[in-house]
Each structure stands twice: as C-alpha cells, then as structure tokens.
Amino acid sequence: MTGGLGLILFAIFVALVFDFINGFHDAANSIATVVSTRVLTPGAAVAWAAFFNFVAAFIFGTHVAKAIGSGMVDAAAVTTQVVLSGLAGAIAWNLFTWFFGLPSSSSHALIGGFCGAALMHSGPSALLWSTGKLQKTILFIFLAPLIGMILGLTLMIGVLWLFRRWHPSKIDRFFRRGQLFSAALYSLGHGGNDAQKTMGIIVALLSAAKMDAWAFVPGTHEISWWIILPCHAAIALGTMSGGWRIVKTMGQKITKLKPIGGFCAETAGSITLFGATAMGVPVSTTHTITGAITGVGSTQRLNAVKWGVAENIVWAWILTIPAAGGIAALCQLAFDKLG
User: Fold this and answer.
1) Are the CB atoms for 93 and 17 separated by under 8 Å?
2) CA distance between the termini of the chain
3) What pLDDT does residue 47 have?
C-alpha cells in the first residue's frame, strides 16, 4: 500500500526539502575553491553556483533519475512510507555531517536511505542487483574520487608546463578569470547529477502509486517538467543558502589553493561529473571535487595535502551508506509496527 494522495504529496514535499538540504550541504563542492582563492566573495559565489545548478535542467537528460527511479529498488517494495523513511535517513545524516563540517555524500546518503528502508520493509529481494545500477553506484564510490584526483593531477601538471614561462602574477590574473568558467562548469555538473537523484525518488514514488501520468510526459518515458524544474530550483535555493562549515574544510583544510589550482580542480571535477551523468551513474559530487583538490595539492608536494583531514573525510564516505540506511531502516521499522 503506497498511501493516500495527501501522504504522497507530503512525501514529494519532503523530497524537495532533502533536495534543498543537498544544495545547502553540497554548496561547498561548487564554491569552496573559488571562495578560498578569493576570486569571488562567498555571496557572489553561491549566486553563481545556484544559477548554473538551475540551468543544468535544460542541458542534461534524466538518465541518473531513471537509474534511481527504477533501477535500484523493486517497485513492489516502494511505498510512501519507504520513501519517507529513506529521506529521513538521508536528511539526518546530511545534517549530522554538516554540523561537524564533514563533506560527506548527499547522493549516497539518499541511496543508502532508500535501500535501507526498502530492505527493512521487504527484505533482500527489494534490491535490484540484476540491473547493475547498484553495482555501478558502489563502484563509483571509489572511482569518482580516484578519477577526479588523476584528472586534477594531470591537468595541474599540464597547465604548469604550458604556462611555465609566464610571470606568477600574470598566471594568477589569468586563472582568476578562468575560475569563473571552471566554477560554472562544475556547478552545471553538480546540478545535472544531484538534482536528478531527487527526481528519481519522486518518480519511484509515483510509479509505485500507479500515477505514471503524473511522473511522465504522456505517451513517453520522459520525466515531467513539473518534477524536473522544482528539483533544480530546490537544489539551487539550497546552494544559495551556503554551507560555510564545509566550505572551510574543502577550501582551506585539505590543501591551500591558488587560482590555477582551483581552475584545475573544478575542471577535473566537472569532466568527471559530465561523464558520469551521461552514463546515468549517480556519483558523489563531494567525492569528485575532494579527489580533484587532493590531486592538485599533491603536485606541490605530498605533505601539501593534509592527509589527516582527508582520512576523516574518507571515514565519513565509508559510513554514509550504512549510517543513512540504518536510520532509514529504524524509521521504516517504526512505520511497519504502527501500520
């Protein structure tokens, strides 16, 4: 039983709340480098990032949303209560990690919460391992930061070589302008991948309720614009509200960045996100940009990266899916007992 219309509408509202918190929590991913290099003030940076978070709605498809909406959890296991429990687990973990300034993955918190609630409600058969979507998602927990790090390292080395004859002050001025472009690209990638995850949850909910006419454009399997636009608007508004604790960790505690490094990190992160979104793989923008920043920092010298901070971040990554899943499972258990 999925629940009445009122409960379904409430679940959609909670999904948009999660999307807002996602933008709030992940604002640092889009703006940390451009703020830490002082190319933009914090206020200008969040406005810049939020604009491109929203514009992404008109550039990317909905492959990631479809992967989450129908490729991870069996539709028979999806109820409004499962969705609400999954969102509760994701929101709780996001707020916990925000409070401690840890840039954990909102994406994996949502996936962990959704899967944890479905497992509690329907058992192991709830998870659709046969589609390969879950395996890809788990694989990219490790691949996304690694790809970001390799690209960040490679780009930094290449750019340093190309501009080796330039005076440092001229390089600094040039890449201050370049960072506006790279930050815009990264924000597009962030909005394009992350907003789709909330779309996928809403589509899964509506499909389980046999409300496909609401979820899709009539006669097609394309997600309705009334879902797409609010999801991008919510994540953009969340980004506008900032997330300064995590900005400090991302922009200052991992490694000190100059505009040239910020440009390379953002460009490496955006390439990774564009590729993952095109393949329909929900990846962590947090993992991606952290890997890219680490790769850029390691070109100076290995001890330029504060590996103790990086270790704390990695532990937050490892714990995200089981922690969000565990909270969601407890919420679902309460629903099942009360229902």
Assistant:
1) no
2) 10
3) 85
State the amino acid at position 270 in one-letter form: S
What residues contact 274, with CB distance under 8 A and at least 6 apart?
Answer: 188, 189, 192
pLDDT at 325: 96
Dihedral through CA 330, CA 333, CA 334, CA 339, nearest 10? 160
Whole-prediction pTM: 0.86
State the number of CA atoms in the 13 A half-sphere of 236 facing the CB.
20
Q: Tell me which residues of the chain have a pLDDT lower than 50.
A: 1, 246, 249-252, 254
Q: In the chain, how long is the greatest CA-to-CA distance?
A: 71
Please report the pLDDT score of residue 209 as a whole number. Answer: 87
d(CA 120, CA 85): 10
Q: How far is CA 5 from CA 11, 12, 21, 336, in A?
A: 10, 11, 24, 19
How far apart are the C-alpha atoms of 256 and 306, rounded to whole Å?
10
Q: How far is CA 197 from CA 161, 178, 201, 210, 266, in A?
A: 39, 30, 7, 20, 21
* pLDDT score of 65: 92
What letter represents residue 55's amino acid? V
pLDDT at 250: 47
Looking at the DSSP bridge assignments, the partners of residue 127 are 73
* CA separation for the pair 156, 198 (Å, rounded): 34
